[in-house]
Write a structure and sequence with these properties.
There is one protein chain. The chain is built from two helices and no strands. By secondary structure, the chain is mostly helical. The chain has a domain of about 35 residues. The two termini are about 35 Å apart.
Amino acid sequence: MNEVFKSREIKLPLENMGTVTDETRYEKEFEIQNPIYGDEKMYQKYQNT
């Protein structure tokens, strides 16, 4: 992968593009996964962390 970046003159390391911090990670994950898996599964998951 690095070779492809170099051949296309993409400088490494790439700039951080994250929109989620350690503090908001669980909230964002819940917002995305809760509609898919439901309240019960998400509640169980967060009880185990």
